[in-house]
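Dear colleague,

Following up on yesterday's call, I've attached the two folding results inline so they're easy to grep. Please treat them as preliminary; we haven't cross-checked anything against experimental data yet. The first protein's sequence and structure tokens come first.
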Amino acid sequence: MSKFLNYLGGVIGGFGLIYVPASELLQGLDPLLDIIGIIVVIVFAVALIINGVRSLISKT
């Protein structure tokens, strides 16, 4: 369960990087933060899927 919550937190953090607007000081980094957020969401979503499949396989 702990891995699940960690991966879910990673996905939520990635969405945070995508949707939270940057301040005026960091406005130039906004496209970079969007790209990093998208990569983080993809990586943690794949990790969640792999973890779920491994859990299903090990229970049968």
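Below is the second protein, in the same order (sequence, then structure):
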Amino acid sequence: MANANLNISVIEKRMLKQTEAADYTGLPVKHFKATCPVQPVEMRPGTILWDKRDLDKWIDAMKEGAEMATQDAILGKL
């Protein structure tokens, strides 16, 4: 019996279209458009893309803000 190897290389995209960026953040497109402060990049005329790293920074900043709000609430109860 013959053995076969299959080498597949997957390159993860860094730049996302608006629908992909909304999916990446877990938001509906309508909500993403209204709330996302991340500025897209025009890679070429008519091609607007969002950088995953910038989206990650935005999400991380929101998490840190929520963490601080929780700590403030705890301190406020003391």
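For the second protein, one point worth flagging: The mean pLDDT is 87.

Best wishes,
A.L.
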